[in-house]
């Protein structure tokens, strides 16, 4: 199969965003260097797997709303393990609004791949230099892998926004029966072993499976996960999304986030992977 890799300025309405486009036969993926964020994955010319908010921004330090944001080195608000000086720190870590560097690229009959790197010297909880890398490989699947070899406390998530066309049609399975409900702030036991979404959903499923299926009106997607200890399912629903400047009215019906996460913040090296393919 033919593969290709080209720089591209702009994607969708983000017309000045520095990007890279990977191609493998009919499949393509677009990655923003800002945030090392995959913005588009099309396994075929007709099907877009990822959702990008029509109101997403990238200037003024904004995190791009959509695609696959990289959350690191903490997930959600920074807890005291990360926020040692008790400063105001951004949600979901420090790398969604940074320009990453392209350090490796490869195309062959087996696929197209890139490695992006970010070096950080100003972590609030660690004085040394830390390097994190994101590799993206496109072939019959799209594989995104985040790694950091430094033995520092670190959480991470590949915070994927999936284009589902219609929230009523979504089914994610298998999911563990028990989850932490961040909306109700309690642990819930749900024996249906699946997740239909008809209200604000912000759930942490610990010890989730290595393979999930996301079924929806646009087709079924396999989501492979590795190096994770949880899957987070999120949809802000109508009221909460109304308060978000980068979300249009009605957008909440068009996406669901299924996030491959490592939430345990012990000092083990990080290798977190999400692999997507239509089935
Ligand atoms: C999810 C969290 O992962 O991300 C939610 O579980 C959060 O609590 C959501 O609201 C969006 O976060 P942000 O920082 O991109 O607005």
From TrEMBL:
Gene Ontology MF: a single term: glucose-6-phosphate 1-epimerase activity
This enzyme's EC code(s): 5.1.3.15
Biological-process GO terms, alphabetical: carbohydrate metabolic process
UniProt KW Isomerase keyword: yes
Catalytic site positions: 159, 259
Matching InterPro entries: Aldose_1/G6P_1-epimerase, G6P_1-epimerase, Gal_mutarotase_sf_dom, GH-type_carb-bd
One Pfam family, short name: Aldose_epim
Family affiliation: Belongs to the glucose-6-phosphate 1-epimerase family.
Recorded superkingdom: Bacteria
Protein name, per record: Putative glucose-6-phosphate 1-epimerase
Catalytic reaction list: alpha-D-glucose 6-phosphate = beta-D-glucose 6-phosphate
Organism expressing this protein natively: Rheinheimera sp. BAL341
């Amino acid at each position: 199969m033919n593969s290709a890799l080209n720089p591209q300025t702009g994607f969708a309405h983000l017309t000045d965003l520095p990007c890279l486009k990977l191609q493998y036969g009919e499949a393509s993926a677009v990655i923003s260097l800002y945030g090392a964020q995959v913005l588009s994955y099309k396994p075929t010319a007709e099907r877009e797997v990822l959702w990008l908010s029509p109101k997403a921004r990238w200037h003024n330090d904004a995190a791009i709303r959509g695609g696959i944001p990289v959350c690191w080195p903490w997930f959600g608000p920074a807890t005291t393990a990360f926020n040692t000086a008790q400063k105001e720190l951004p949600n979901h870590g420090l790398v969604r609004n940074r320009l990453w560097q392209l350090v490796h690229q490869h195309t062959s009959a087996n696929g197209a791949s890139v490695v992006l790197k970010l070096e950080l010297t100003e972590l609030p909880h660690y004085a040394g230099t830390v390097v994190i890398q994101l590799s993206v490989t496109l072939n019959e699947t799209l594989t995104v892998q985040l790694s950091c070899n430094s033995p520092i406390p670190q959480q991470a998530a590949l915070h994927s926004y999936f284009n589902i066309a219609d929230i009523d049609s979504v089914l994610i399975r298998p999911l563990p029966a028990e989850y932490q409900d961040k909306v109700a702030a309690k642990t819930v036991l749900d024996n249906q072993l699946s997740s239909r979404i008809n209200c604000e959903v912000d759930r942490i499923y610990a010890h989730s499976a290595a393979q999930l299926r996301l079924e929806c009106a646009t087709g079924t997607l396999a989501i492979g996960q590795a190096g994770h200890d949880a899957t987070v399912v999120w949809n802000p629903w109508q009221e909460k999304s109304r308060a978000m400047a980068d979300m249009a009215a009605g957008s909440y019906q068009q996406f669901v986030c299924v996030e491959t996460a490592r939430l345990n913040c012990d000092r083990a090296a990080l290798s977190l992977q999400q692999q997507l393919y239509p089935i």
